[in-house]
Each structure stands twice: as C-alpha cells, then as structure tokens.
Amino acid sequence: QLQLVESGGGLVQPGGSLRLSCAASGSTLDVHAIGWFRQAPGKERKGVSCISRSGGITNYADSVKGRFTISRDNAKNTVYLQMNSLKPEDTAIYYCAAAPDCSDYVFVFASWGQGTQVTVSS
Q: Which of these, 57, 34, 35, lies nearest to 47 by C-alpha position?
C-alpha cells in the first residue's frame, strides 16, 4: 500500500525559497500521478501543482505559476516541489497525495501524507 511522507517545510522570509519532498514507500511511484496541495488555517485544502506518472505533464495553480516547479525522480521514489519567491500568502500546511492521473478534483487523490508546515514571514 502506497504511503507518502512530506518533508522540507520550515520558516522562510518573503522572497525566499524552499524545496519540499514527497517520498513514497510501499509501492513504486511511477504508477501514480502526484499532486501537491495546501491548506491554510480556516481555509479549504486546494491544489497547488500536479505531475503525471511519467513527469511529462505538469500543472500549477495560477497563484504559484512561475514561482513553483514540480518534478519527480521515479528512481528515488520522490516528488519535489521547488518553491521560489515565496510570499506570506503561501503560508500553509503542504500535503502530497496520489491519483491515477492529475485532476482538478481533490477527492480523487488518496494516500495523503501527514503534511509539512511552510511559514513565510519576516
């Protein structure tokens, strides 16, 4: 059974960068599309980015386009989210999850990790 674990969160100043990792175990990652999501306090969980099984297709929320980059290393069973030019509004708990294909619908994703906190503040 696929299990995902996020890491790489932390406190960063506005304009800074972080790289999140989503490490898989229990199953090979290359049979799953992987999405990154975030949830700020009092708000619903929203999609940030998604990468297809092969890595050939990626998509991003408008709010992060040009600043975030998703990538995957199937040999390492890991998906990354490089976050640059971070803003205070990027503050949230970031989660990764798996699906057969990327989708706009959160409910199709499963095997949610525990999340990693990202705080952007001066």
A: 35
